[in-house]
Amino acid sequence: MLTYSFEDKGKDSLYEYLYKQIKNDIISYKLSPGEKLPSKRAFAKHLNISTITVENAYIQLLAEGYIYSVPKSGYYVSDISSTKVLKEERPTKDVPSKADNSEIFADFTSNSTAKDSFPFSTWTKILRQIMSDYEKELMVRSPFAGIKLLRNAIADYLYQFRGMAVDPEQIIVGAGTEYLYGIIIQLLGREKKYGVEDPGYQKITRIYQANQVQCAHIPMDENGVDIRALEDADADILHISPSHHFPTGIVTPISRRYEILSWAAKSASRYIIEDDYDSEFRLMGKPIPSLQSIDVADKVIYINTFSKSLSSTIRISYMVLPKSLVSTYKEKLGFYSCTVSNFEQYTLYRFIEQGHLEKHINRMRNYYRIQRDTILTCIKKQKKYNQTVIKEEHSGLHFLLQVETDLSDEELILKAKENGIAISCLSQYSYLPENATEHTIIINYSGIMEKDIPEAVDRLFLSLWNE
Amino acid sequence: MLTYSFEDKGKDSLYEYLYKQIKNDIISYKLSPGEKLPSKRAFAKHLNISTITVENAYIQLLAEGYIYSVPKSGYYVSDISSTKVLKEERPTKDVPSKADNSEIFADFTSNSTAKDSFPFSTWTKILRQIMSDYEKELMVRSPFAGIKLLRNAIADYLYQFRGMAVDPEQIIVGAGTEYLYGIIIQLLGREKKYGVEDPGYQKITRIYQANQVQCAHIPMDENGVDIRALEDADADILHISPSHHFPTGIVTPISRRYEILSWAAKSASRYIIEDDYDSEFRLMGKPIPSLQSIDVADKVIYINTFSKSLSSTIRISYMVLPKSLVSTYKEKLGFYSCTVSNFEQYTLYRFIEQGHLEKHINRMRNYYRIQRDTILTCIKKQKKYNQTVIKEEHSGLHFLLQVETDLSDEELILKAKENGIAISCLSQYSYLPENATEHTIIINYSGIMEKDIPEAVDRLFLSLWNE
């Protein structure tokens, strides 16, 4: 089998180095066109590296056209003498990260919000008003936590629509939740061990890793994080999304919520980061109270974003600190400038205050309900519907489709791609192999155009079995 | 002397704990109203902590009204039975960080830009255009590094006005330099030792400390950071502002620049962060080339902001990575969303492209030159002008005023404050006592109203001697 030594990798990551080595061998014809590359698993074992590393290297090579994939068979070396390799042709331009994005008919992997749904005319009308009404205020530096008017509006909103009694003093506004996660690490300390859900939203792990912070991956049961595993993991901080877990869709019931709060109350150093990112889009039943609202021990940092409910191109998120952390925050991190511009802070303040956010969310909830119902109807019409199970469809903006099939998850993804459908599987979101579930597709429906749904579902079902 | 043990301080910082201990003793009348507190230096020595820690605790107590200061004498315990302590009276409102801000006539400590100078009507006109011209693009998620149009515009700008040949691929746009510093730590690694200028801009040290990264304070000579001290400090990364150092105003000459580059070239792990924050406002002579533009070893991360040249309420900064770090950045940190909203990215792009930035900077350069000349004229008219020396006045937006006086720096600051003038001294920006210079006032003039200058200078000079 192909063998590479990683001794000279220098500052490259393992995957980067592997990618370069293989690429060089392809360019120099050490690997011949049409030659089969080792399977990811075998190659990883052989090189004593992780499968993910090999996978990342293969994906990069695939995207750049150095290799191609044959479904149910594997990866093969491209004939580069005929292929024009993007990267070398346009040295100073952006290299598209996916070479064949244009062939995608529907993308069930994207969690971006529906583009046309953003209340553009209302937003820009308010922004225009703000530019005349607040000319002076727009030029006054925002407090580190965000302008008072916006924090008041958020507090009112949380009280009315989420039943949370929050002092505006506890609210910190920032340019996106990813930014706020980094700030939380600075607030709570990097010597702490951060527990994250497994499976879970991969970016959260990446952020902790980029900050070189110790991360524990806590397995989930059907009610959310497994409490015994949590105790065993010896984590200080637990980062969870109990309202609607991504990707499993689990809504943590109230009894488990109390168990989680009880875990936190047992030690002074323990805190919970509650990411409530799409709680607005619960489509059925009464929302379950947030952890923050039933926490009496001052242990919960609540975090939410407007990028999900408005548009991913507006970068405004916020967190609600426990009262006991407010003064610590001011002292330790109050010197930071607020990362959101005044123009957007004032616009969002008025947008909320005039009731537009509420209206917009109601409208979107209906929109997503129709979206979901249309997809479910299309799925139920499929001949092979009885070989699938739909799971966790009551919350927005995704659900799960479990499939009885002989194909592996990798094969499912490749076959769907050939049919113009981008999908991801639950197993891809598991950090530890023992926490992975096979044959479960995540259906993110927020970014699919309604008119494309019937064809998208047909194409998806075409890809699920080996025929 | 007062003695406190720091054994039970728990998670508090030293200063926070000390502040709480003294406050408790005042509230419980263990310290009586009118009782004198120990001098900062003696107290620090007695408790075996740094003078800065004591100073911070005193400032907090002073701001909250628990103690008061008597010029030339020291700090005394307030009579809290009669004083209404702000913090306890208004539990849910903002506590003003300075109790007596309203009495300040002119603030020479603020580095905020002139409020009325922002080209508000041009900016809002373009923002209005953008809202109609780019409706679709505004809803498309920005690449992690910022939208291409803006990065192209920045690259063109740097080429034309700073002589820097930069590929737009090297540019990363983010919500403020403080945010980008945090990202650089993630890029270069937190196991590195970061060298900062001493004296220097305090926020930089605070950011490294908040990120729990090891920091070395490198003393300055008249040409910038001291190379021998730099070698001795064993730092990996050097964070400097060679174009115009704050607060000393030093412009590092070209020979020293090469020495600094040569230091960096000696080891693979060494990098330079070049903060070029106000290079646009050099008021005399030809600008010296940036380190980035004479660096052939790919060692310089160049960083600059539009918050300084436009408005501190617009949070857009950028950095230029060395070419060799571009792919590392993509892999390690490319998953982060860009922190600047599309509305502002597109507006800034067009603002630069249509030449408004250039015009604005020219206009501001003239404005600041007049501002500086007016202040210098007013200073030269003072009777006691011959007991002062003006230093480093050729770059914007501050210069130094060295004073022959018997007053200590603390007394200078307090006396000026009594006269309604906020000032800061060079010594306050030194981290290590041995790097401190006494009797040198920093005159930040960018935020002073022109009409207030004569009175502000009169009031300032009234405060400089003990009479």
Question: Main attributes?
Answer:
homodimer; 467 residues; alpha/beta; eight-stranded mixed beta sheet; four-stranded antiparallel beta sheet; 18 helices
Q: What fraction, in percent, of the residue positions of chain A are helical?
A: 40-55%
Largest sheet of chain A: 8 strands, mixed
Instruction: Describe the oligomeric state of these chains in a short phrase.
Output: homodimer
Class by SSE composition of chain A:
alpha/beta
Distance between the termini of chain A: 31 Å
Give the rounded overall mean pLDDT of chain A.
87
**What strand order characterises the main sheet of chain A?**
4-11-10-9-8-5-6-7
Total count of strands of chain A: 16
Any idea what the radius of gyration of chain A is?
24 Å
Q: What would the principal axes of the Cα set say about the shape of chain A?
A: globular
Estimate the strand proportion of chain A.
5-15%
Q: Helix count of chain A? A: 18
Name the chain pair whose interface involves the most residues: A-B, 64 and 65 residues
Contiguous uncertain segments of 5+ residues of chain A: 82-101
